[in-house]
């Protein structure tokens, strides 16, 4: 049988579960996960290497109507990926009622060339009688070659998904070496994992106004230790106080959680030196956005 390989954009509204699906399919954590919408800010590549082919998943920022320059850049990233891959996978959260956001996502995905696959995620939270009309409505759009109910949390429907996707990929050799898992560099992944731990511990508007800049990266060969100095950037002074926490408790807790996750991910020791600065309007500053690690 001929070998197949290609790129697959995983698109959908914020919080549809795209990153969780990519991590589950790749078999390791390549994208951060949060219950906050718009967690993924840039394209993340994760590779699934199989005996019959290679699938390069592109986890994209959520499809939404942008309010800031940062959001517009995120949407541009998503659309660029959608228009430049072999297969587009649209992830829909079926636990949420269909609304204008879903219709907007369908309009954007319609701009991509087929083949297109629709994944109805979180089916473990929905009764089957409610799921069937949703599937029928999506089939009626004529946009999709396949409509598949899945759950990133329970694994339902995921076992056969890679084989299904491979059918739509071109016959060719692997695009990346077989041992490759992700194309994100170490600094970007570390910054993302730091941001993830602060997203878990903050509420309201803070997650959307939180960025991470890796300022310094030093490897101490003698101590077998990587020292990372990173700055967390927030929109307002009162946000800075919240991110630091009473007596520095939140930044200590999040920093420890980030370090443990980073060490687990890379299999080596890290020391994180974290700082917080308030920079009002940073999401509208194109030059500053270019310096962001996450």
* Number of alpha- plus pi-helical segments: 9
Question: In CATH, what is the homologous superfamily of the largest domain?
Answer: P-loop containing nucleotide triphosphate hydrolases
Structural class: alpha/beta
Major sheet: arrangement of strands: 2-3-1-4-5-6
Describe the structure.
The chain is α/β, with parallel strands linked by helices. It folds into 2 domains: 4-167, P-loop containing nucleotide triphosphate hydrolases (Rossmann fold, 3-Layer(aba) Sandwich); 186-289, 2-Layer Sandwich (GMP Synthetase, Chain A, domain 3). Helix content is 33%, strand content 24%. It contains 9 helices and 9 strands. The strands form 2 sheets. The chain has a 6-stranded mixed beta sheet with strand order 2-3-1-4-5-6, sandwiched between helices. A 3-stranded mixed beta sheet has the order 7-8-9. A hairpin with a 4-residue loop joins strand 7 and strand 8. Helix 6 packs across helix 8. The longest helix has 18 residues, at 249-266. The protein is globular, with a radius of gyration of 20 Å.
Give structural attributes.
single chain; 294 residues; alpha/beta; Rossmann fold; GMP Synthetase, Chain A, domain 3; 2 domains; six-stranded mixed β-sheet; 9 helices; 24% strand
Q: Helices, strands, pairings?
A:
Elements: E1 4-12, H1 18-26, E2 44-50, E3 53-59, H2 69-82, E4 87-93, H3 100-109, E5 116-121, H4 128-140, E6 146-149, H5 161-167, H6 186-199, E7 211-220, E8 225-234, H7 237-244, H8 249-266, E9 269-278, H9 286-289
Parallel strand pairs: 1-3, 1-4, 4-5, 5-6, 8-9
Antiparallel strand pairs: 2-3, 7-8
Helix pairs in contact: 6-8
């Amino acid at each position: 049988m001929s070998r197949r390989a290609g790129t697959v954009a995983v698109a959908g509204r914020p919080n549809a579960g795209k990153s969780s699906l990519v991590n589950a399919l790749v078999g390791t954590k390549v994208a951060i996960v949060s219950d906050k919408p718009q967690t993924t800010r840039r394209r993340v590549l994760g590779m699934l290497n199989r005996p019959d082919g290679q699938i390069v998943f592109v986890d994209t920022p959520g499809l939404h109507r942008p309010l800031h320059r940062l959001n517009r850049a995120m949407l541009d990233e998503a659309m660029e990926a959608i228009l430049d891959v072999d297969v587009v996978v649209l992830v829909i959260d079926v636990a949420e009622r269909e609304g204008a956001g879903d219709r907007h996502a369908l309009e954007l995905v319609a701009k991509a060339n087929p083949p297109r696959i629709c994944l109805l995620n979180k089916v473990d939270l929905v009764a089957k009688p409610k799921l069937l009309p949703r599937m029928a409505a999506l089939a009626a759009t004529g946009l999709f070659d396949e409509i598949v109910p899945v759950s990133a949390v329970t694994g339902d429907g995921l076992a056969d998904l890679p084989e299904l996707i491979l059918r739509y990929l071109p016959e060719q050799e692997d695009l990346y070496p077989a041992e490759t898992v992700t194309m994100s560099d170490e600094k970007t992944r570390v910054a993302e994992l730091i941001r993830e731990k602060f997203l878990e511990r903050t509420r309201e508007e803070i997650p959307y106004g939180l960025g991470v800049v890796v300022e310094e990266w030093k490897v101490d060969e003698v101590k077998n230790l990587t020292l990372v100095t990173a700055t967390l950037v927030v929109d307002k002074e009162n946000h800075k106080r919240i991110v630091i926490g009473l007596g520095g408790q939140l930044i200590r807790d999040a920093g420890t959680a980030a370090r443990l996750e980073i060490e687990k991910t890379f299999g080596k020791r890290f020391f994180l030196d974290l700082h917080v600065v308030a920079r009002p309007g940073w999401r509208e500053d194109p030059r500053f956005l270019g310096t962001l690690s996450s």
